Amino acid sequence: LQRTKQQSKWLFPLVIADVALFTLDRGSLKTLLIQRTNAPTGWALPGGLLDPSIDRSLDDTATRVLASKTHINLFHLEQVIVRSGPKRDPRGWSISVLYLALLPSDKLHAVVGNKTEAIAWCDPEHTGHRLVFDHDLMLKEALRVLRNRVTDGALPLHLLPLRFTLTELQHTCEAILKVKLDKSAFRRQIRNSPWLSKVPGAYLRGAQRPAQLYRAANGFNFKVSY
Amino acid sequence: LQRTKQQSKWLFPLVIADVALFTLDRGSLKTLLIQRTNAPTGWALPGGLLDPSIDRSLDDTATRVLASKTHINLFHLEQVIVRSGPKRDPRGWSISVLYLALLPSDKLHAVVGNKTEAIAWCDPEHTGHRLVFDHDLMLKEALRVLRNRVTDGALPLHLLPLRFTLTELQHTCEAILKVKLDKSAFRRQIRNSPWLSKVPGAYLRGAQRPAQLYRAANGFNFKVSY
DNA sequence: GCAATAGTGTCTATTAGACAATATGGG
DNA sequence: CCCATATTGTCTAATAGACACTATTGC
């Protein structure tokens, strides 16, 4: 096959990083959607094109895209799936790497849209929108990976503030999995987790017995561990 | 930043599918390496560039690349990891998707190199070669994913012939994990697997009690199931 | 004391690991 | 019979699920 520079749009695919960003909003799992102002218009996962002159890797692209939407440097970016083909993006042959990202719930209000984009925090299972590209499928896949990771115990720490109680951690897991967990069994399971540390003398007080506060342990760097 | 067509090599990254192909060779897990004839020369995982005029997806690229090396249409291609950056390939900014593939052991001898490439089946943990690009890391990652999948029970079926005994299945799992498994516990675990079917009346005979032959069950399409 | 939530204990069913026992063919 | 491997059984320790109990605060 002969190739010319005129064909470059056809021969060189668009390279994209898309991000499924999850957070907890008053106990419910939510995902960030944006309303695109450029064609194709409609609701989509936040994403953007690789810029080889800036990005040292496609992971960098994901971080950069997300920072431009959230104004926060996010921890825990994890590759989920690669989607590609000539039809999934009307602009041409494209390859898109989906990332899973988690936003601590106390940073929720730092996330705002810019002038040209509307944003929305949606229930990942019922967004209320049909997403453009193949983002409906991507979101479903991200949710599946997120749920699989909960059993590690470590991942939900990314969604919590620096200090949290075991009950809050349990409620976080329940919100992700959409199931009720037994308090006793839950605490037994996480008791020996190397990622949890008591904060000595720190308690959450209310109209009841105070709750011991915990934090992510030293060595837990908010990156995924295998 | 201004962009011109002259910069296209810089602005459009190489898009590559690499494959970690595993098989069983007389009870030992082996992976396929090729000796590159083009620069950079040296040993590497089999891989190749996306061709948007042929491939309907990057998964197609992986299938195509592998078919050109093995002359077999392989089942079970699974995405493992995406590596990218300006330095990992001396030819320029590149993005490479690594795939995990499994070759049934009775098809081992169908795999031959072409005239320009040497191939070798190597112990994935001690290849005896330093691989070019970042393929050492990729291979390590593929092996990790392969081992994680063994607990499903389904995946080792891809490495076995159409008919096999439970002992052969156990030895396959042991070869992948490099641990000894208890016969009784192993059979208890897979007893209720929906992916295993007895072949009625079919036995492997030897100088001992005959062994019941099994096959992958109807509905097991040799694709990964979540 | 009472309400409310934190934190622990207990019983049982299920599962995993180790090992033993039995079964069935070929010679 | 004997050998070799297939297949099943058994005992025990660890684990998971359900539920109940105790603990400690604010009011």
Describe the structure.
The structure is a homodimer of 226-residue chains. The first copy, chain A, is α+β, with helices and mostly antiparallel strands. Chain A is built from 5 helices and 10 strands. In chain A, the strands form 2 sheets. In chain A, strands 1, 2, 3, 4, 5, 6 and 7 form a 7-stranded mixed sheet that branches. A 3-stranded antiparallel sheet of chain A has the order 8-10-9. In chain A, a hairpin with an 8-residue loop joins strand 5 and strand 6. The N terminus of chain A is likely disordered. At the A-B interface, helix 1 and strand 5 of A face helix 1 and strand 5 of B. Chain A binds a DNA duplex (27 and 27 nucleotides) through helix 5, strand 9 and strand 10.
Could you give a short description of this structure?
Chain A has 226 residues and is an alpha+beta fold. Chain A has five helices and ten strands; from the N terminus they run αββββαβββαβααββ. Helices cover 23% and strands 32% of the residues of chain A.
